[in-house]
Amino acid sequence: MRRIAVVPGSFDPVTLGHLDVIERAAGLFDELHVLVVPNPGKTALLPISRRVELLQKSIRDAGIAGNIVVASWSMGLLVDYCLEVGASVLIKGIRSQVDVAYETPMAIVNRNLAAVETVFLLPDPAHAHVSSSLVRQVAALGGDIAPYVPEAVAEFLQKAPV
Fold first, then answer.
1. What is the pTM of this model?
2. 9 has which bridge partners?
3. If 107 and its partner were Cys, which of 12, 83, 95, 118 is the partner (CB 3.0–4.6 Å)?
């Protein structure tokens, strides 16, 4: 039986911490779907299509091996996508206790709705303090985001007004 997992996120923009989680998850599963989903609680910096492009380029540039599919999903529940592609596991990167408190109820509901388990992966400590929100804020104020994001993202955001 193939082990298929989904790493969902807004990836607005993708960070080095995201890539760390994606790389480690790719080594644990036969197929990994990196799924860009909208976050209705936040104003997006980048359109979903651009986030998909930057994720694909960042994964390729980082040399992350594995059977990785980058896609987007905006209709229905996340577990609907999991059922559609045969995934039984969601992967969530957890940076702090705040993330655990936020993700735990969703993990329980996803298990109850569709028998999809959630696996929490801790980030590399070098990236544990970085979030997409922080990157957006630093970029908007003219700061250097290069230490926190893949090169493709840094280059794109330097050219595009934030």
1. 0.94
2. 36
3. 118
